[in-house]
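Lab notebook, design round three. We kept the backbone fixed and only want residue identities now. Task for the bench partner: fill in a sequence for the structure below.
Input structure tokens:
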């Protein structure tokens, strides 16, 4: 196994520089100056004959003589641009160095395509004025894309090895970038430095909805965001009432704001390649909360009950909350809702109306 080329602490980097244009290596490529040529500028040998005594032609050789100054100030050909994102070989090298074997348990599928990273950042509308929360940064693919914009990034990582390595990777690739790493479970954090304004993340498939709802609940400063989730989950988050995939996540997401799908993502841009497709989901938060926290909890409890038995009429599915179907019918009717309707037909405001009609 070859020695990893990336994420080395200061002083441990290899002495040799990568050749311009060559892939692999966290260090930035440095364009090497061209050596001075020993050959004369002209390809023809100097003439031994004396200069011609004929007068110079009245017609100039060119419409405008070349300026001697312009010849001496022409910039040298640009070398390869500095690398600021991770490529496939670099990601695999980092994983090998850290002993990371991506697991389904933690939902670890790392993005290895730079074009996809920049697409996510562009669709998210990130600017240098933003403080962005990223959940599950992994090896840093998306983190580096976010930092390219000049935004401040707060990365929440549960894996201790990845959390420790991420600042080293960023410092090698984009020195001085404003990154803060929180080593914790995103489902438990209750404080984030810097009043985050946006959420951008490749959310682990197995906990994507709970993490999203937790962050929206506890961090009202997050005004908008873009998350990459399993396609089925993303479509459910953005589904309107009456849709076949409309469900509890759809209603709860709508409590906080407007959600929409923003494009599919090929499974081939991940390593390892997942068995499911992914989708981008964008959201914008409501200017003001729908209601109080007490009514939010009451509304969410009704939503859960309605979709646990989604094929049943509301008077039956909500009887668990109200004691019996007769009482459930009274409460639902008092809210102006048909008790024979099903949960999949109700908007978040309909569920809220039933919660308000409940003593």
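Proposed sequence:
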């Amino acid at each position: 196994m070859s020695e990893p080329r990336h994420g080395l602490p200061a002083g441990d980097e290899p002495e040799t520089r990568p050749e311009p244009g060559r892939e692999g290596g966290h260090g930035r490529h440095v364009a090497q100056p061209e050596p001075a040529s020993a050959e004369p500028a002209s390809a023809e040998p100097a003439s031994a004959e004396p200069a011609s005594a004929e007068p110079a032609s009245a017609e100039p050789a060119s419409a405008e003589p070349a300026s001697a100054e312009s010849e001496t100030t022409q910039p040298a050909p640009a070398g390869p641009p500095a690398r600021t994102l991770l490529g496939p070989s670099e990601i695999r090298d980092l994983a090998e160095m850290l002993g990371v074997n991506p697991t389904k348990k933690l939902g670890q599928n790392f993005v290895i395509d730079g074009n996809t990273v920049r697409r996510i950042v562009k669709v998210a509308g990130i600017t240098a004025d933003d403080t962005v929360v990223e959940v599950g940064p992994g090896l840093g693919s998306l983190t580096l894309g976010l930092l390219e914009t000049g935004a401040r990034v707060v990365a929440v990582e549960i894996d201790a090895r990845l959390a420790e390595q991420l600042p080293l990777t960023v410092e090698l690739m984009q020195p001085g970038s404003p990154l803060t790493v929180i080593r914790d479970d995103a489902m438990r954090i209750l404080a984030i430095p810097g009043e985050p304004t946006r959420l951008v993340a490749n959310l682990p498939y197995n906990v994507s909805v709970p993490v999203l709802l937790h962050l929206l609940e506890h961090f009202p400063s997050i005004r908008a965001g873009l998350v990459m989730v399993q396609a089925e989950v993303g479509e459910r988050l953005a589904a309107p009432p009456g849709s076949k995939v409309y469900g509890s996540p759809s209603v709860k997401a709508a409590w906080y704001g407007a959600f929409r799908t923003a494009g599919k993502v090929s499974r081939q841009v991940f390593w390892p390649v997942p068995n499911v497709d992914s989708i981008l989901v964008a959201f914008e938060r409501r200017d003001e909360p729908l209601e109080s926290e007490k009514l939010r909890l009451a509304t969410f409890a009704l939503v859960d009950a309605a979709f646990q038995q989604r094929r049943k009429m509301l008077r039956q599915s909500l009887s668990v909350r109200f004691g019996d179907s007769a009482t459930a019918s009274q409460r639902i009717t008092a809210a102006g809702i048909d008790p024979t309707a099903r949960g999949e037909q109700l908007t978040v405001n309909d569920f809220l109306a039933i919660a308000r009609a409940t003593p």
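Keep this in mind before ordering anything: Residues 31 and 79 are 5 Å apart (CA to CA).
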